[in-house]
Amino acid sequence: MRKTLLLAIAVMSMGALSAQQNNGGISAEMMKEIRLGENGSAAEKAARNALALNAVSELATNADNLAMIDTNFSHRVRTKGITNQYQSGRCWLFTGLNILRAKMIDDHNLGGMEFSQNYLFFYDQLEKCNLFLQAVIDTKHLAMESREVEWLFKNPLSDGGQFTGVSNLVMKYGVVPAEVMPENHQSNNTSQISNLIKLKLREYGLILREQRDRRAPVALKTEMLKEIYSMLVRAYGVPPTEFEWTMRDKDNNVISTKTYTPQSFYAEYFGEIDLEKDFVMVMNDPSREYYKVYEIEYDRHMYDGDNWLYLNLPIEEVKAMAIASIKDNTAMYFSCDVGKFLLSKKGTLDINNFDYESLMGVEFPMNKEQRVRTFASGSSHAMTLIAVDLDEQGNPKKWMVENSWGPTSGWKGNLIMTDEWFEEYMFRVVVDKKYIPAETLKLLEQKPIELPSWDPMFAYEE
C-alpha cells in the first residue's frame, strides 16, 4: 500500500500544485481531491459506525491473538513479591530497588521484603531542587529566552527518572527497609505536592537570576532549600538517620536484630556492589550511530551526580548481555515504550495484540529509527527484567519483566513481551560490567557525545 501511495503522490503532484492555494492552505480544488479518499464502501461505513460508540483499542484488539501466551520461561531470576508505585512517576526508583530486593531475598533466604521508596524519593526531590536552583545560578549570564534557560524553567522538578538517579542516591544516602519509612498518600500520589514545589522553584529561580552579588546566591539557595526541605517533610515524613531492624528468614525465624544507619545498612548487605561504577546503561537507538557513548546534559538527579551516560549498541548485542545476566540469576533495570501494543487484560506486549491498520484502513509502516526521530516512540517506563525463554538454538522467543503496578495488573504483576516487540520498543538495559564483553567495555573509554536536555531520549521514565 505504501508503494501505491507514493506512486499516487508522484502522479498527482502536478495537479495538486495547481490546486493548492499560494499560501499553502486547502483550496476548493484540493478539497475535491481530498474527498476522493472517502470511498463510501460498506466496510468503511461499518468501521465508522463502530468507532462512533467504542474505544479504538477495543475495536483494534486482534481476535486472532487473544489466546494467552505461554508463561513458561527457560531462564528466570528468583524474585518474590510485586510492588506498586500507585499514582506516581517513580517506576525508575521501584525498578532499581527491586533489583536490590531480589538479590537480598535470594542471598539471605528471606520470605520477602521491600525497600522504602519513600525514603530515597524524599532525597531525590531535594537533590533535584538543588540541581535546578544551581543550574539557574550557572545560567544567569544567558537570556531568559535562551533555550537552555527556557528548558530549565519548564522542567524544574519531576518525579520521573532513570538509573543514574538510583545509583547516585543509593550510594550517597543508603537504603532502608519499607517499614522504617513507609509509603503514605502523598508518596503514592505525587502530582499535587510536586506542582506546589515547582511553583516555588520557579519563584526562587527568578529571584536568583536577579541577584548581582556573586556571593549571595549560595547563601540564598541554602535558605530556599530549607523551605523546600520543610515542604518535603510535611508531605513525605522525616527521613531516618538511624533505625533498628530485625531480619527474619522465610519461616519467620529471627536471624538478627541490629541498629543501622541507611548507609551502614547498604554496606552490610550490598557492600560489594558499587552501583555507580559496576553497571553500564546500554541502549538500542537506531537513530544514532552505534558503538558510541552519549551523554544527556542535565539528565541527572543531583548536581554533583552523574549525567545519564549510555552506550548505543545493535539490538542483538543488547540481547546477548541481558541473556547472560538472567542466566546468572541477576535482574536488570529495563526501560521501554510500554504503551505500545500493551494488552493489559493478558499482561502481554505483542505487536500483534492490535490491528490498527484493518480498523483504520491505512498502514503504519515507520520503523524504530523513524519513530524515534519523529518523537513517535521513546522510553516511557522502567521495569525489572527477570526472565527469558530460549529456543533449542539459544535464541530468545519471549521475555518477562516484573512491573510496579501492583500484583493484580498484567500477568501476576508481570508483563510478558514477544521478542519481536522487544526489538521494536525496548530502549535501555542496565547491565553489570561482568556480562559485557571486554572489547565492548573499551568503548566506554571514548569521550561521550553530549546531547542537549531536550533530546528525544531525555524523557524521564515514569
Describe this structure as you would to a colleague.
- By secondary structure, the protein is an alpha+beta fold.
- The protein has two domains: 88-270, Cysteine proteinases (Cathepsin B, Chain A, Alpha-Beta Complex), CATH 3.90.70.10; 279-451, Cysteine proteinases (Cathepsin B, Chain A), CATH 3.90.70.10.
- Helices cover 41% and strands 15% of the residues.
- It contains 17 helices and 14 strands.
- Strands 1, 4, 5, 6, 7, 8, 9, 10, 11, 12, 13 and 14 form a twelve-stranded mixed beta sheet that branches. Strands 2-3 form a two-stranded antiparallel ribbon.
- Strand 8 (342-343) and strand 9 form a beta hairpin.
- Helix 6 (117-138) runs antiparallel to helix 11 (216-236) and helix 10 packs antiparallel against helix 11 (216-236).
- The model has no long low-confidence stretch (mean pLDDT 93).
